[in-house]
Structure formats: structure tokens, C-alpha cells
Design brief:
This protein is mostly beta strands. Strands 1, 3, 4, 5, 6, 8, 13, 14, 15 and 17 form a ten-stranded mixed beta sheet that branches.
Length: about 375
Amino acid sequence: MRRPWPKRRLGAAAALALALLTGVLACAPSNGSGSGGGGAAAPGSGGATATGGGPGSGGASAGSGGAATGGAPGSGGASPNADAAPPADAGADGAGNGRDGAMDRSLNPDAGGGPADGGGGDLAGWNLAWADEFDIDGAPQTSNWRYETGFVRNMELQWYQTANATVSGGILTIEGKRETVANPNYMAGSSDWKRSRQNAQYTSSSITTSGKRTFTYGRFEARARIDVRQGSWPAFWTVGTMGGWPAGGEVDIMEFYAGKVLANVCKPNGSTCGWSSVTKQVSTLGADWPNQFHIWVMEWDVSKIDLYLDGTLMNHFNVADAVPSGTTNPYVARPVYIIVNLALGANGGDPANTTFPVRYEVDYVRVYQRP
């Protein structure tokens, strides 16, 4: 299927590296398969129904799984520099709200976003470690992703399910839908919000590399178009695999809610995060900004985390400032996994008057690392 807009292609060397990685890894036997574990309940939230790890500014859900080594041809694969994936034990999130009114979702060939190098600076000195170009139609590749399911965190409105994430024409689309789904974990009179709701009125998807791929340091990049209408809460973020949330850390490379895009780094503080957060109002970025694809980047090393939007530095964070001296720092030599999700409600606002579906479209997700 022909892509209706130009994709920012990998350079020749990176494309060759990806082809070699996926070819070799696709032929290699798998040394395990990711499987979702039980969800860890947030304080006071009761039992969780999530099957996997993920973000949550009010609760963490845990996931476990073995490392999958195979990458489907064309869909990405892990390089020898990428970490083997240990069981993920927690996650935490943020992402959101927006302007109301109908979105122009036309397939505009000029709906680009970002400079030619794709975000936060020159790619010289970076080697492609892993990527998913979403070039295989159907469901997201199981060698790279697994799903969260059910009610997961933040008292959001959506029921996460697999059906809302599809790949077509080189684009991953996560659709938020207004539809009723019965909650199989419903318990009348329960004080746990995940069990007290008899039905969900909305559905969406959340995919994560937890139990599949993890990375320590690097350049994390995604090109995406987000829906900024009321109720929409998309995010592209990373969560540490060690120590639970928030001790394991969280970086929101892209988060949107309340009419603004955010670039956040969690500074663990007991059972919550103190945030290094920088925001931009979408209304200041131009009338056509919501209709375009944009490039979000995190560049992370032992000393700093830099978060970029379309090549402009949004948040510079000194890793040493994450925790008090003498405390385990979640951003020093510790692996993270990636989450791509579209939440509805909560921080996103009430979607009752929004015309559905709400869409989060992702062109690619790439991770580069230093040699």
C-alpha cells in the first residue's frame, strides 16, 4: 500500500543496519516470549486489571515477560547494543486534553514536522539500535510490542484492548472509540475504581516494549501526529524496569493534555514524582500544527536527558538532579522500556462532546545508541 505522505527515511547506513539486524534476528530462534504479568495496585486503588506494565501518575501496573529476540523483517529488531529485556516491574504515566471541534485528518503530503535530521541535533555518532517503521500491515509486531488491557491507571475512561491499534500504509494508528465494553472484573460496591465500573464507555490501545525490548541510554525518536481535541491524552514515554514506580523513573518524551504539549522527567520522591516539566501551548505553535506530523526526541546519557520537539530543545535535565546524593539514580546505567498509548478522559478532559474516533498516528519509533 502506497504511503500517502512522505516518510522521513533512514539514512543509507542506518537502513542497511536495520535490514541486517532484522534479517539476522528474524532467522534466529527466540529465546523467550513476552507475557503480561499481574498489575500492581496503586496505593488505595485496590487490585489492577492491567496485564502489563505502564505509566501512571496515580498508580503503577506491573508487567513481566521474557526477552524476544526476533524482529520481523521491515518492522525493526534489536541490535547487539540494545539491552536484553528483563521482566518489567512497573510503570507510570502522563499525557492529554485538547481543543474541541472537528480535526482535519486529511492525508496532507506536506504534513511533515521537524528538521531534516529528525529532532534533537545531528545523527552523526549515533548507530541505529532498533526501530519499528510500521511497514507491515495488520497488528503491531509481537516481536516488538505487547498490549496493556483493561482499566490501567489514573482513573482514565478508556478500556485498553488490542483491536484499537492497527498498522496500515506505514502508519500505526491508535484509535480512541466511543463504545460500551463490559468490565469482566466488575464487583458491585467495590472501592477500587477498576472494579466499581460495570462498563467502559470508551476504548483505546496502549502498546509497550516491556518484556520485549529495553535500552540503556540513547536517542529515542518518534514521528507522530496527535489529536488535540477534548478528551485526548496521547503519550510517547519510557519507564524504568527496576525498582517499581516511581523509583524506576519515567520520562514523558511526548505528552499532550489541556491544550499543551509537555516534556517531563520524573524525580522520584517517595510514592510520587517531583517533575521537571516544560510545556508549550499548542495554540502558539500555528493553526496547522495539529494536522501535521512532528518529531519527538529524547537524548539520554549518564549526565543528561534532553527532550526535543521538532529539533527545538524543550527540556534539559541534569541526571544528577533526579534524586538526592547517595540515593539510587534511576537514570544511571538502568534499562527502560517504551510505551505508546492514547488515554481518554482524566487529564485529557471530558470527551462527551468530542466527535469520535480520536486518533494517534505514529510513523515510526527508533532508538539510536553510541558505538
